[in-house]
Amino acid sequence: MINIQNLKKNFPIFQNNPDLTYLDSTATTLKPLSVIRKMDEYYGQYSANIFRGI
């Protein structure tokens, strides 16, 4: 059986809102901390507009 409290530990939003109930939507979804860290790395180190500055 899935332990919901352990699962919620992966999502930063639940740190300040432990009783929050989130219902997924097609527009967006909550991201676990591991994904947020990789996105931050990408936008901080690799993201660029191709041929915009030429």
Automatic annotation (TrEMBL):
Where does the record place the Aminotransferase class V domain?
21-53
The family database entries (SUPFAM superfamilies) matched by this protein are listed as: PLP-dependent transferases
UniProt protein name: Cysteine desulfurase
What is the originating organism of this protein? Candidatus Roizmanbacteria bacterium CG_4_10_14_0_8_um_filter_39_9
What is the taxonomic lineage of the source species?
Bacteria, Candidatus Roizmaniibacteriota
